[in-house]
Amino acid sequence: MFSGSIVALITPMKNGKFDRESYEKLIEFHIEKGTSAILTCGCTGEPATLSMEEHKEVIKYTVEVVNKRIPVIAGTGSNNTAEAIELTQFAEKTGADASLIITPYYNKPTQKGLYQHYKKIAESVSIPIILYNVPSRTGISIQPETVSALSEIKNIVGIKEASGSLDQVSKIIKLCPEDFVVLSGDDSLTLPIIAVGGKGVVSVAANIVPDKVAEMVKSALENDWEKARKLHLELFPIFKILFIETNPIPVKTALGIMGMITPEWRLPLTPPSEENFEKIKKTLIECGVIK
Q1: Domain containing residue 46: CATH number
Q2: Domain, as residue range, for 148
Q3: What mean pLDDT do residues 98-106 have?
Q4: What rounded mean pLDDT belongs to the chain?
Protein backbone atom coordinates (compact mmCIF):
# COMPACT_ATOMS: atom_id res chain seq x y z
CA MET A 1 0.00 0.00 0.00
CA PHE A 2 2.76 2.46 0.90
CA SER A 3 5.31 2.13 -1.87
CA GLY A 4 5.84 3.44 -5.37
CA SER A 5 4.91 6.89 -6.63
CA ILE A 6 2.46 8.59 -4.28
CA VAL A 7 1.33 11.98 -5.56
CA ALA A 8 1.15 14.90 -3.15
CA LEU A 9 -1.93 16.18 -4.92
CA ILE A 10 -2.63 19.89 -5.27
CA THR A 11 -5.96 21.35 -4.16
CA PRO A 12 -7.37 23.27 -7.16
CA MET A 13 -9.39 26.36 -6.34
CA LYS A 14 -11.73 28.51 -8.39
CA ASN A 15 -13.09 31.87 -7.31
CA GLY A 16 -11.76 31.21 -3.83
CA LYS A 17 -13.46 27.82 -3.39
CA PHE A 18 -12.44 24.17 -3.73
CA ASP A 19 -12.72 23.26 -7.44
CA ARG A 20 -14.30 19.81 -7.30
CA GLU A 21 -14.56 19.40 -11.07
CA SER A 22 -10.85 19.97 -11.72
CA TYR A 23 -9.93 17.86 -8.70
CA GLU A 24 -11.90 14.87 -9.97
CA LYS A 25 -10.17 15.16 -13.36
CA LEU A 26 -6.78 15.21 -11.64
CA ILE A 27 -7.60 12.06 -9.69
CA GLU A 28 -8.68 10.25 -12.86
CA PHE A 29 -5.48 11.44 -14.57
CA HIS A 30 -3.38 9.87 -11.80
CA ILE A 31 -5.23 6.58 -11.76
CA GLU A 32 -4.88 6.33 -15.56
CA LYS A 33 -1.15 7.18 -15.48
CA GLY A 34 -0.14 4.63 -12.85
CA THR A 35 0.19 6.65 -9.65
CA SER A 36 0.37 4.26 -6.70
CA ALA A 37 -1.63 6.30 -4.17
CA ILE A 38 -3.13 9.74 -3.62
CA LEU A 39 -2.01 11.96 -0.76
CA THR A 40 -4.61 14.63 -0.17
CA CYS A 41 -4.05 17.72 2.01
CA GLY A 42 -0.30 17.32 2.22
CA CYS A 43 1.80 20.50 2.12
CA THR A 44 1.30 20.66 -1.67
CA GLY A 45 -2.46 20.63 -1.07
CA GLU A 46 -2.31 23.92 0.90
CA PRO A 47 -3.99 22.62 4.08
CA ALA A 48 -2.66 25.58 6.05
CA THR A 49 -5.04 27.80 4.07
CA LEU A 50 -8.07 25.51 4.46
CA SER A 51 -10.63 25.81 7.22
CA MET A 52 -11.34 22.67 9.26
CA GLU A 53 -14.58 22.20 7.30
CA GLU A 54 -12.81 22.55 3.94
CA HIS A 55 -10.02 20.21 5.03
CA LYS A 56 -12.60 17.55 5.87
CA GLU A 57 -14.49 18.21 2.64
CA VAL A 58 -11.37 17.63 0.51
CA ILE A 59 -10.52 14.38 2.35
CA LYS A 60 -14.09 13.07 2.04
CA TYR A 61 -14.35 13.97 -1.64
CA THR A 62 -11.00 12.31 -2.40
CA VAL A 63 -12.13 9.05 -0.81
CA GLU A 64 -15.43 9.18 -2.71
CA VAL A 65 -13.88 9.84 -6.12
CA VAL A 66 -11.02 7.34 -5.76
CA ASN A 67 -13.53 4.72 -4.57
CA LYS A 68 -10.88 2.21 -3.42
CA ARG A 69 -9.20 2.01 -6.83
CA ILE A 70 -5.89 3.07 -5.26
CA PRO A 71 -5.07 3.94 -1.65
CA VAL A 72 -5.89 7.38 -0.25
CA ILE A 73 -3.59 8.88 2.37
CA ALA A 74 -5.03 11.87 4.19
CA GLY A 75 -2.84 14.66 5.48
CA THR A 76 -4.20 15.29 8.97
CA GLY A 77 -1.37 16.99 10.81
CA SER A 78 -1.54 20.09 12.98
CA ASN A 79 0.53 21.95 15.55
CA ASN A 80 -2.40 21.25 17.86
CA THR A 81 -2.54 17.59 18.94
CA ALA A 82 -6.29 17.67 19.62
CA GLU A 83 -6.96 19.08 16.16
CA ALA A 84 -4.73 16.45 14.54
CA ILE A 85 -6.67 13.75 16.39
CA GLU A 86 -9.98 15.20 15.17
CA LEU A 87 -8.82 15.24 11.55
CA THR A 88 -7.26 11.77 11.75
CA GLN A 89 -10.40 10.28 13.27
CA PHE A 90 -12.44 11.96 10.54
CA ALA A 91 -10.15 10.48 7.87
CA GLU A 92 -10.58 7.02 9.36
CA LYS A 93 -14.36 7.38 9.61
CA THR A 94 -14.53 8.63 6.00
CA GLY A 95 -12.60 5.64 4.67
CA ALA A 96 -9.07 6.93 4.09
CA ASP A 97 -6.52 4.13 3.97
CA ALA A 98 -3.89 5.93 6.05
CA SER A 99 -2.93 9.26 7.51
CA LEU A 100 0.18 11.39 6.95
CA ILE A 101 0.98 13.60 9.94
CA ILE A 102 3.48 16.45 9.78
CA THR A 103 5.62 17.32 12.78
CA PRO A 104 3.97 20.18 14.71
CA TYR A 105 5.08 23.47 13.22
CA TYR A 106 5.84 26.79 14.91
CA ASN A 107 5.71 25.55 18.54
CA LYS A 108 8.91 23.48 18.07
CA PRO A 109 8.31 20.64 20.54
CA THR A 110 11.12 18.60 22.07
CA GLN A 111 11.73 15.02 20.93
CA LYS A 112 9.72 13.90 23.96
CA GLY A 113 6.89 16.16 22.85
CA LEU A 114 7.03 14.77 19.32
CA TYR A 115 6.89 11.22 20.66
CA GLN A 116 3.89 11.97 22.86
CA HIS A 117 2.13 13.87 20.03
CA TYR A 118 2.36 10.97 17.60
CA LYS A 119 1.64 8.35 20.25
CA LYS A 120 -1.55 10.12 21.29
CA ILE A 121 -2.76 10.38 17.69
CA ALA A 122 -1.89 6.76 16.87
CA GLU A 123 -3.79 5.54 19.93
CA SER A 124 -6.90 7.44 18.81
CA VAL A 125 -7.32 5.51 15.53
CA SER A 126 -6.67 2.11 13.98
CA ILE A 127 -5.63 3.21 10.48
CA PRO A 128 -1.91 3.28 9.60
CA ILE A 129 -0.01 6.46 10.45
CA ILE A 130 2.89 7.82 8.38
CA LEU A 131 5.15 10.36 10.07
CA TYR A 132 6.18 13.43 8.06
CA ASN A 133 9.49 15.17 8.66
CA VAL A 134 10.05 18.44 6.80
CA PRO A 135 12.17 20.72 8.98
CA SER A 136 12.46 23.42 6.29
CA ARG A 137 8.76 24.11 6.82
CA THR A 138 8.23 23.25 10.47
CA GLY A 139 11.40 24.44 12.17
CA ILE A 140 11.84 21.08 13.93
CA SER A 141 13.27 17.72 12.85
CA ILE A 142 12.21 14.38 14.23
CA GLN A 143 15.40 12.50 15.09
CA PRO A 144 16.05 8.91 13.92
CA GLU A 145 16.02 7.67 17.53
CA THR A 146 12.54 9.16 18.01
CA VAL A 147 11.37 7.61 14.75
CA SER A 148 12.72 4.27 15.97
CA ALA A 149 10.80 4.56 19.25
CA LEU A 150 7.61 5.48 17.38
CA SER A 151 8.05 2.56 14.96
CA GLU A 152 7.35 0.25 17.89
CA ILE A 153 3.76 1.55 18.00
CA LYS A 154 1.69 -0.90 15.98
CA ASN A 155 -0.04 1.46 13.53
CA ILE A 156 2.88 3.84 12.95
CA VAL A 157 4.11 2.20 9.77
CA GLY A 158 6.42 4.64 8.02
CA ILE A 159 7.81 8.11 7.46
CA LYS A 160 7.92 10.64 4.67
CA GLU A 161 11.45 12.00 4.99
CA ALA A 162 12.03 15.48 3.59
CA SER A 163 15.00 16.57 5.68
CA GLY A 164 17.23 16.45 2.61
CA SER A 165 19.72 14.29 4.51
CA LEU A 166 20.70 10.85 3.24
CA ASP A 167 22.49 10.32 6.54
CA GLN A 168 19.18 10.79 8.36
CA VAL A 169 17.41 8.42 5.98
CA SER A 170 20.13 5.79 6.36
CA LYS A 171 20.02 5.99 10.15
CA ILE A 172 16.23 5.64 10.23
CA ILE A 173 16.38 2.55 8.01
CA LYS A 174 19.14 1.09 10.18
CA LEU A 175 17.30 1.72 13.48
CA CYS A 176 13.75 0.78 12.48
CA PRO A 177 12.16 -2.62 11.77
CA GLU A 178 12.56 -3.99 8.25
CA ASP A 179 8.88 -3.48 7.44
CA PHE A 180 8.94 0.21 8.46
CA VAL A 181 8.46 2.18 5.24
CA VAL A 182 10.68 5.14 4.40
CA LEU A 183 9.38 7.37 1.59
CA SER A 184 11.31 10.18 -0.04
CA GLY A 185 9.84 13.63 0.49
CA ASP A 186 12.18 15.20 -2.07
CA ASP A 187 11.77 14.26 -5.74
CA SER A 188 15.42 14.87 -6.56
CA LEU A 189 16.53 12.51 -3.75
CA THR A 190 14.12 9.68 -4.52
CA LEU A 191 16.63 7.58 -6.45
CA PRO A 192 19.39 7.64 -3.78
CA ILE A 193 16.83 7.12 -1.01
CA ILE A 194 15.53 3.99 -2.73
CA ALA A 195 19.14 2.88 -3.18
CA VAL A 196 19.64 2.83 0.60
CA GLY A 197 16.32 1.09 1.30
CA GLY A 198 13.47 3.55 0.72
CA LYS A 199 10.25 2.26 -0.81
CA GLY A 200 9.10 5.18 -2.94
CA VAL A 201 8.26 8.86 -2.96
CA VAL A 202 5.55 11.30 -2.00
CA SER A 203 6.00 13.37 -5.11
CA VAL A 204 5.28 16.93 -6.18
CA ALA A 205 6.54 16.29 -9.72
CA ALA A 206 4.02 13.45 -10.12
CA ASN A 207 1.34 16.13 -10.34
CA ILE A 208 2.55 16.92 -13.88
CA VAL A 209 4.46 13.80 -15.01
CA PRO A 210 2.84 10.93 -13.05
CA ASP A 211 3.71 8.20 -15.54
CA LYS A 212 7.40 9.14 -15.66
CA VAL A 213 7.79 9.36 -11.88
CA ALA A 214 5.96 6.06 -11.45
CA GLU A 215 8.23 4.43 -14.05
CA MET A 216 11.39 5.77 -12.40
CA VAL A 217 10.36 4.50 -8.97
CA LYS A 218 9.23 1.13 -10.32
CA SER A 219 12.52 0.68 -12.16
CA ALA A 220 14.54 1.48 -9.04
CA LEU A 221 12.47 -0.84 -6.84
CA GLU A 222 13.01 -3.62 -9.41
CA ASN A 223 16.78 -2.96 -9.41
CA ASP A 224 16.81 -1.68 -12.99
CA TRP A 225 19.17 1.09 -11.94
CA GLU A 226 20.28 2.10 -15.41
CA LYS A 227 16.72 2.84 -16.51
CA ALA A 228 15.93 4.54 -13.20
CA ARG A 229 19.05 6.69 -13.48
CA LYS A 230 18.17 7.81 -17.02
CA LEU A 231 14.64 8.75 -15.93
CA HIS A 232 15.99 10.59 -12.89
CA LEU A 233 18.27 12.70 -15.07
CA GLU A 234 15.47 13.30 -17.59
CA LEU A 235 13.15 14.51 -14.82
CA PHE A 236 15.76 16.41 -12.82
CA PRO A 237 15.02 19.83 -14.40
CA ILE A 238 11.35 19.39 -13.48
CA PHE A 239 12.24 18.34 -9.92
CA LYS A 240 14.22 21.55 -9.46
CA ILE A 241 11.95 24.05 -11.26
CA LEU A 242 9.00 23.06 -9.07
CA PHE A 243 10.81 24.64 -6.13
CA ILE A 244 11.91 27.87 -7.82
CA GLU A 245 9.33 29.50 -5.56
CA THR A 246 7.47 28.16 -2.53
CA ASN A 247 5.60 24.91 -3.22
CA PRO A 248 2.84 24.71 -4.52
CA ILE A 249 3.21 27.98 -6.47
CA PRO A 250 5.29 26.43 -9.31
CA VAL A 251 3.37 23.15 -9.62
CA LYS A 252 0.01 24.94 -9.82
CA THR A 253 1.54 27.27 -12.39
CA ALA A 254 2.71 24.25 -14.43
CA LEU A 255 -0.71 22.60 -14.25
CA GLY A 256 -2.26 25.86 -15.39
CA ILE A 257 0.10 26.04 -18.37
CA MET A 258 -0.84 22.43 -19.17
CA GLY A 259 -4.54 23.36 -19.11
CA MET A 260 -5.29 20.99 -16.21
CA ILE A 261 -6.51 23.63 -13.74
CA THR A 262 -7.18 27.32 -13.36
CA PRO A 263 -4.12 28.28 -11.30
CA GLU A 264 -5.30 29.94 -8.13
CA TRP A 265 -3.75 30.26 -4.68
CA ARG A 266 -4.91 31.53 -1.34
CA LEU A 267 -3.06 34.29 0.42
CA PRO A 268 -0.42 34.46 1.68
CA LEU A 269 0.59 32.46 -1.43
CA THR A 270 0.64 34.44 -4.67
CA PRO A 271 1.27 33.73 -8.37
CA PRO A 272 4.90 33.42 -9.45
CA SER A 273 6.92 36.31 -10.77
CA GLU A 274 6.76 36.85 -14.53
CA GLU A 275 10.40 35.76 -14.81
CA ASN A 276 9.77 32.50 -12.96
CA PHE A 277 6.59 31.84 -14.94
CA GLU A 278 8.67 31.92 -18.11
CA LYS A 279 11.30 29.62 -16.57
CA ILE A 280 8.61 27.09 -15.59
CA LYS A 281 7.09 27.20 -19.08
CA LYS A 282 10.52 26.84 -20.73
CA THR A 283 11.32 23.77 -18.59
CA LEU A 284 8.00 22.14 -19.48
CA ILE A 285 8.74 22.63 -23.17
CA GLU A 286 12.34 21.42 -22.93
CA CYS A 287 11.25 18.30 -21.01
CA GLY A 288 8.51 17.50 -23.53
CA VAL A 289 5.59 18.04 -21.15
CA ILE A 290 4.06 20.63 -23.49
CA LYS A 291 4.85 21.69 -27.04
Answers
A1: 3.20.20.70
A2: 4-222
A3: 96
A4: 97
